[in-house]
């Protein structure tokens, strides 16, 4: 049997590779983006309660109504916009599904999607599988700010969408007010749609707000905005996320969603709906993760790595230019197998494997884990 691959360049993801390597060599895993601490015990108890009560059958395709209502209320409090729970909010089985459903809903063969690189690894395959063409625009290194002139030059008559990510994985950069103004100016009087990956919305540091696209009506009117409960509640394995989009876009989004997963795990939806009454959790999350960021930064002060503290997410980029001139993928592998700390090389987030000599560490870890990793890194 001969099967021609739709994704001939795609292999096992770097996250899987590095996590397996870390396990094989007993390294501290700061590569894949997941916490090594548990979600709030009150939330897990709520899940258990709903399991025992028998909430174990299919949820509504669009998601449990109470959860969608809670999301609408939360969105209004945070961003001044109250999406309609019935027609503008859809619960999905993770943000990756939401991204895929949005792209599948809007793309036709030959349509172009502008992607800002470095970019999360699921974006390009989702575009290609739906007949689209990625158009790459590099972010400015080392700030990873957007050059809006380059974005403007990348727009053609075939541009269907711009895919944004803020706070940004892997760099930790965040959108500014001027970024939203530039974006709004670019798409005015066009049919360009926006897909905004905002799964780290509650991890913006140094007193800065998260500037969701939902804060600007002219952008919200043409956007799929995607958020993640897995990131917010330290439960990435639950794969529960949601998409906010105008009613007309949500109709098409749900047509795809119902044939991808149909619905998302029922008892967890009810539990999250209840737990959203606890606003303190997500309102204090920036301070919670900033403390971990600051600790990691402090612990590496005496190392030969150099870094600028991340503005958002739970990732930190570091430069190793004072240590070696190796390519980042080779150094990341050696760091895992010889030093005992696993990281992600940034070149894997570029379609041409552009190497800036940077690694990404995840600091969503217990203090003891960060101290143990730093002790090893300081020996270099």
UniProtKB/TrEMBL annotation:
One of its GO terms (molecular function) is kynurenine-oxoglutarate transaminase activity. It comes from the Bacteria. GO terms for cellular component: cytoplasm. Residues 28-377 form the Aminotransferase class I/classII large domain. Keywords: Aminotransferase, Pyridoxal phosphate, Transferase. The keyword Transferase applies. Belongs to the class-I pyridoxal-phosphate-dependent aminotransferase family. This is Methionine aminotransferase. It comes from Adhaeribacter radiodurans.
């Amino acid at each position: 049997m001969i099967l021609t691959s739709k994704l001939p360049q795609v292999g096992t993801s770097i996250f899987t590779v590095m996590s397996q390597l870390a396990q094989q060599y007993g390294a501290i895993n700061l590569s894949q983006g997941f916490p090594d601490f548990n979600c709030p015990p009150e939330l897990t108890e709520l899940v258990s309660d709903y399991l025992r009560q028998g909430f174990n059958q299919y949820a509504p395709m669009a998601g449990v109504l109470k959860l969608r209502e809670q999301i609408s209320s939360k969105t209004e409090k945070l961003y001044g916009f109250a999406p309609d729970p019935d027609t503008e909010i859809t619960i999905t089985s993770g943000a990756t599904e939401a991204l895929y459903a949005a792209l599948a809903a809007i793309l036709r063969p030959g349509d172009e999607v502008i992607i800002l690189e470095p970019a999360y690894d699921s974006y390009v395959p989702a575009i290609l599988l739906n007949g689209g063409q990625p158009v790459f625009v590099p972010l400015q290194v080392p700030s990873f700010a957007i050059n809006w002139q380059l974005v403007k030059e990348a727009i053609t008559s075939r541009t269907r969408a711009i895919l944004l990510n803020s706070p940004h994985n892997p760099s930790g950069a965040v959108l500014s007010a001027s970024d939203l103004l530039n974006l709004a100016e670019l798409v005015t009087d066009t049919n360009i749609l926006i897909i905004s990956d905002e799964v780290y919305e509650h991890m913006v540091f140094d007193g800065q707000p998260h500037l969701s696209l939902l804060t600007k009506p002219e952008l919200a009117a043409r956007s799929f905005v995607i958020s993640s409960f897995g990131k917010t509640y330290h439960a990435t394995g639950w794969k529960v996320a949601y998409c906010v989009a105008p009613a007309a876009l949500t109709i098409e989004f749900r047509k795809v969603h119902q044939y991808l997963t149909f619905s998302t795990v029922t008892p967890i939806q009810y539990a999250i709906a209840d737990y959203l009454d606890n606003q303190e959790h997500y309102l204090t999350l920036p301070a919670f993760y900033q403390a971990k960021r600051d600790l990691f930064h402090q612990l590496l002060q005496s190392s030969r790595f150099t870094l600028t503290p991340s503005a958002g997410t739970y990732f930190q980029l570091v430069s190793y230019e004072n240590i070696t001139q190796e390519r980042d993928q080779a150094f990341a592998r050696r760091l895992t197998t010889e030093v005992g700390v696993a990281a992600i090389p940034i070149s894997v987030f570029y379609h041409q494997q552009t190497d800036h000599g940077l690694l990404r560490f995840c600091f969503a870890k217990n203090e003891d884990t960060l101290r143990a990793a730093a002790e090893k890194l300081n020996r270099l």
